[in-house]
Amino acid sequence: MIHIVLLLGCAVVIYLACEWFVNAVEWLGARLKVGPLAVGTILAAAGTALPESVVTLVAILFGSKHSGDDIGVGAALGGPLVVGTIAYAVTGVMLLSRRLTRVREMAGGIAGAEPPAAPLDGTDMRRLARDQTWFLAIFVVKVGLGLVAFAIKPWLGLLFFAAYAVYFWRETGGSGEHAADEDLEPLKLQPRRTSPSTPAVVAQTLATLVVIFLASQLFVRQLEWAGPAIGLSPIVVALLLSPVATELPEVMNAIIWVRQGKTPLALANISGAMMIQATVPSGIGLLGTPWHFDAPLVLAGVATLLSVIYLLVLFRTGRATAGRLIVAAVFYVLFAVGLAVVQ
User: Fold this and answer.
1) Tens of pLDDT, residues 3-28
2) How far apart are CA 11 and CA 300, in angstroms?
C-alpha cells in the first residue's frame, strides 16, 4: 500500500512541478531570446529528459555489473520508445478532447466559444518531419551498433554527443525569431508582476527541475520494487516500467501545453526530448557498457522504429491528426505483448 501511495503521490507532484516548470521555461526562453519552438525542443526538453539520462548514468556507474548494465541500456532504449508512442498518443487524446469541447460549446451556443482548430493547432508538420528524420537516422545507427561487436565501438559514443551538439546548434541559431512574452501567464513565483525578474525565472526553473528529478527517481524506485514483486526481470523493468516514470515530465508537459492551446510547444518538447534520448543516454551507454542487445532490446528498437516511421509519414504528407497520433500507442502495446512472449 505504501508503494502504491508513493507512486500516485509522485505522479501528482510531477504534474504540479511540470505546471510550474513550463510556466518558468517560457519566460526563460523569452529572456534568452531563443526561437519560439526552441523553448520546447531545447530548454524544456533538456529539463524533462534529465531523469532518463541520469537513470542510465547512475545504473551504469553504480549498479551491479550485470543488472546495472541491463537497466542502463534498457533505459536508453525504453525512453525513446515511450516518448515515440505514449507521449504522442497522449497529445492526440488531449487534442481530441479540446476539439470535442469546442464542438459542444459551439453547438450549445456558448458565448465566446471558439471553432475547432486546424489539425494539430496549426503546428508546422514539415519541421516535425525533419526532426523525425534526424531521430530515425541516429536511432538506426544506435540499434545497429547493438547487434555488432568491434574494438572501437565504445568510442563511437562520442559521436552521439556530437550529433546532439549539431542539433542544439541548429535549433538555437538561425531563424531570427525570438520567443515573445506578451501572452505569457505571470510567473508563479511573482504572480502580481507583468514582467518577472530574471533571478525569479531562473530560480523557479531550477527548483522545479530538482522536484521533477527527485520525484521521478522516487517513482522509479517504486517501480523497481514492483518488478521483482510481480516476477519481472531487470531488463523488463528498464524497458517497460522505468520509462513510464522517467517520461512522465514529457507527457505532463504535453498535457499542460495542449490544454493551454500551445500544441506546437508540446510537440516540439516531444521531438526535442526524443533527440536527446537518441544521443545522450546512448553515448553514455556505449562508453560504459558492451552495448549488446538481446531479444527484448531488439524488440524495443523495432517497435520504436516502426512508430517513428509511421509518424514521419504522417508529418511529411501533412496527414497527422489527433486520432492518428493516438494510433502511435498501438506500437507500445505490440511491444508489451511481444515482450511477454520472448521472456
Assistant:
1) 778 878 887 888 888 889 888 988 88
2) 24
Give the CA dihedral 151, 155, 160, 161, nearest 10 degrees. 170
Contact between 251 and 111 under an 8 Å Cβ cutoff? The reply is no
Determine contact, residues 199/225, Cβ cutoff 8 Å. no
**How is residue 129 annotated by DSSP?**
H
Distance CA(206)–CA(291), nearest Å, equals: 33
- For residue 239 the three cell numbers come to 524497458
Per-residue pLDDT tens for 22-49? 889 888 888 888 777 788 888 888 877 7
Q: Higher confidence at residue 276 or residue 51? A: 276
Decide if 21 contacts 253 (C-beta within 8 A): yes
Q: What is the DSSP letter of 112?
A: T
d(C-alpha 14, C-alpha 115), whole Å: 32
Rg (CA), the chain: 20
**Rounded to the nearest 5 degrees, what angle is found at the Cα of 116, between the Cα atoms of 114 and 118?**
125
49-101 pLDDT per residue, tens:
776 677 677 777 766 565 667 777 877 888 899 999 999 999 999 999 888 88
**Burial readout 189-214 (b: 16 or more C-beta within 10 A, e: otherwise):** beeeeeebeeebbeebbeebbebbbe
Asked whether residue 102 carries a pLDDT value surpassing 90, the answer given is: no
Ramachandran class of 96: left when φ > 0, alpha when ψ lies in -120 to 50, beta otherwise: alpha
Q: What is the DSSP letter of 247?
A: T
Give the CA count within 13 Å in the CB-facing half-sphere of 210: 6
> Distance (Å, rounded) from C-alpha 261 to C-alpha 70?
40
- Give the Cα separation of 263 and 122 in Å (integer): 8
Please, are residues 236 and 73 in contact by the beta-carbon 8 Å criterion?
no
